[in-house]
Every structure is written in structure tokens, then in C-alpha cells.
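Entry for the shared binder. Reason: the reviewer on the internal report wants the predicted structure included alongside the sequence.
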Amino acid sequence: MVEEEMEMVEEMEMVEEEMEMVEEEMEMVEEEMEMVEEEMEMVEEEEEEEMVKEEEEEMEMVEEEMEMVEEEMEMVEEEMEMVEEEMEMEMVEEEEEEEMVKEEEEEMEMVKEEEEERVGRLILERYGTPTSGLRGRALSRPNLPDRLGGRDYTARHYLIPIPPPENQEGETRKKRKRAQRQCIVCAHSEIRDKVRQSKATLTSDPSTKTED
């Protein structure tokens, strides 16, 4: 009996030792698990840091692109302002050119009027003025404009009567001068029809005909 008990005690001791060993192994496994968890946490932290870093880099790139876009927009705005200024300058230049052309045309018109008036005065000085009662008078020298202005007229020239002073009341000096010029210079385009009418009247009315 005693031997059996001793064997049982020994077995119990062995079992206890095995249990202790198992416990130690379990502790080791737990420690390993903890280490693995720590490593996993470290890996996760590293991944998070990398992701955050990548996101930050992407944000920086986006900000740089935005800055470049803003700079391009500013350049485009400056170019637009320059184009607007150039267009304004062109418009001003065109207006100035138009004004200059208008002034030149007015000056040419004035010179033309003065020249026509001078020719009319020469005609008046050399050949006199028709009376207000005559409807028209033929000049006996058809080559008169050749000597005065270099023009070539082969037909007769007629002087339309100058309106009497009482018919010019209320007219400006310019209108009077123009009326007088048109009455004197038969080559003027505005009175060619009147010249033709006067010719027809002279040929049909014996009282107004003059001999060459």
C-alpha cells in the first residue's frame, strides 16, 4: 500500500511539473503574442505615417499647382489689360486720324471754294457780270477755262445771273458766297443742269440770244 501511495505521489509531482512547464510555455506564447501585437501596432503606425506623409505631399503638390494656376490667371489678366489698353490706343488713334482726315477735307473744301471764288473773280474782272434781267449770256471765248484752270471745254459757257441783293436777305456770308460762286462758275457740278436749261432757254427764246 505504501508503495502504491508513493507511486501516486510521484505521479502527482510529475503532473505538477508538467503543468508548470505548460504554464511557462503559455506565458512564453503570451509574451510572443504581445510582441507580435506590438509589431503590428508599429507597422500600422508606420503605414499611417506614410499615408499621412503621402497625403501631405499630395496636398503640397495641389497647393503648388493652385499657385501656378493663380500666376497664370494673373498673367492672363495682365495680357487682357494690355490688349484693352492697345485697343483703346487704337481707337484713340483712329479717332485722331478721322479728325485729321475730316480737318484735311474741310481744308481742301475751303481751298476749293477759295479757288473757285478766285476763278469767279477773274471772270468778273475780265468779262463783267450779266444784268439781273438776263437769263443767261454766252461767252465769246470757249477756251477761257484752258487759260484759267487748264480745263478743256469745247461748248459755249453761260453765266447764270447773280440774284439781286434783295433776294439774299437773311442768308449767311457763306451761303451768299456759295450762291455767287455757283452763279459764276458754270463748270461746277451742282449747276450743270441749270446751265443746260439756260442753253435750252437761250436757243428757244429769241429775246435772250446773243451773237458770238
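Summary line for the report: The radius of gyration is 60 Å.
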